[in-house]
Amino acid sequence: MPMSLKCIMPKPFPHLLLITLMLFILPSVAVAQDSGSLKRFLQGYVKMRAGRVVDYTTYLEAWINLNGDGNEEAIVYLTGGGWCGSGGCSTLILQPEGSSYRIITELPYVNLPIRVLNTSSNGWRNLTVWVRSGGVGTRYETELRFNGKTYPTDPLVPPAKPLRKKAEGNVLISDNGPEKWLFR
Question: What predicted TM-score, i.e. pTM, was given to this entire model?
């Protein structure tokens, strides 16, 4: 039976099948591995910071190559479980490092959306987040520029700077994105 199939199928068929598998199955496997290792990292981070499992912690994630090295960094917006206050929620910018992640920046007081701009500083793409001064003040968009080691760690004070006009870029995490449960 296999002989008759081999005779019927044109020669390029096995190559086309292999290419199709590579295009559709392998990318989904890579994303699942990244998401799984990210979730494990975040669980450890939350346990360390909170000193306990906070089972109602949720998060939003976005993956983008911020530094042009061909590898995507993760931007994570933590919600619930004590990660949010009147000024906004905590956000992490993470760089994959082996099977774990290196924290590039920890940001408090972030409101959505988070955007990546078309401009760069020190080889890393500039980002914007929305903030609310004092938690009850006027909302505004502030630009975060990489200084060679990190992004600003407080979006309310310099070197973060309020945008005077709309900058060109794309939304990475919006306020209607799908939240994921961290411990469920």
Answer: 0.79
pLDDT tens per residue across span 1-15:
444 433 343 444 343
What is the C-alpha separation between 113 and 128, in angstroms, rounded? 8
Pairing of strands 124-132, 100-121: antiparallel
Nearest to 114 by CA among 80, 71, 66, 157: 66
